[in-house]
Prior knowledge:
Layout: H1 7-20, H2 22-29, H3 36-56, H4 59-73, H5 83-98, H6 102-123, H7 126-201, H8 206-235, H9 239-252, E1 256-260, H10 267-286, E2 291-299, E3 302-309, H11 322-332, E4 337-343, E5 346-354
Parallel strand pairs: 1-2
Antiparallel strand pairs: 2-3, 3-5, 4-5
Helix pairs in contact: 1-3, 1-7, 2-3, 2-5, 3-4, 4-5, 5-6, 5-7, 6-7, 7-8, 9-10, 10-11
Amino acid sequence: MNDLPHTALRGTLHALWLGSLVVPLVAVLREPSASRWLGVVGLVLLAAAYEVALRNGKFWISGVATLVSIPLVAPVGPAELHPWAWIGGIAAGFAPLLLTGVWRWLTALGAVVLAGAVGFFADREPTTHLVIAAAVGATILATAGLPVWFAGLLEQARAGREARAELAVSEERLRFARDVHDLLGHRLTVIALKAELAGRLAATDPERSAAEAFEAQRLASSALSEVRDAVDGYRAVDLAEQLDAVRDVLREAGIRCTVTAVPVAGDGATQLALALREACTNVLRHSRATWCMIDLAERDGEVRMTVTNDGVDPAAPGRQGNGLRGMGERLAAHGGRVSADRSDGTHTLRVVVPT
């Protein structure tokens, strides 16, 4: 019960539990003898035990309190109010919410049967006790069980969205890793073989050893150049394509995305596309956004891109991350700048590049 995503739902369960004790409390207080105070003690014990169970998940406490309260509450109060039948119904209604697996239903059924047994020994009306306990238990399940079930579905949907976001980021990283592996795998193997051969020939054939060492150096330089070309190609992304890709990825992750853009060309478009990719990654990984707005506008010889989303965690620190610092350094080298701020539950990233 601690994992319920909404405090309001937990409050509803607490109120429902305490409200269910009203009839037993009225019955106990109407007892003319001094034994009514034993009934009050039993009800207070029950209320405290179930409150602990709802807050901390220590379900055994509520079970022990229920059993202890039987001799305290069952004989007390007017027979026509059947106080223990109500308590049995409360136990039957909350058992499926507090327990898991087959135990939840066995406990609920056992509470109803126990209420009937108590009715037989207390005032010889087992059928009435059974009916009251079953009706109260069903009412509690109908009132509280459905919201709890929906809350669980919402939590699963949120977890699925986060998993899809992580998968999208991982797939992009794996794609680039495969490209680098394809480029370097063969070259590095050949370089290692030539370096080993040069070491073996150093004493017997210095001329050939030098040639092999030179060839290894040439291959290393060539591999480095190819990796740089691959990275440049990875960086030189098309802004329009990146906008479409980001919009699709965010929508697949369950985030409403709107894009307002103007045509941008040249190096500024590349830098904006890289910044947009980083911004999208942050939205997917570091927030629980439900909407995201991307706006590009040209003004005063500059192109300004604003990325705003509502996924700010108020408890998260507001410090600048490594991705944002790296973005700022890269943009500064091209005459651009970046800034970010949080307010009213939204996060806004602003990127400016010269036209």
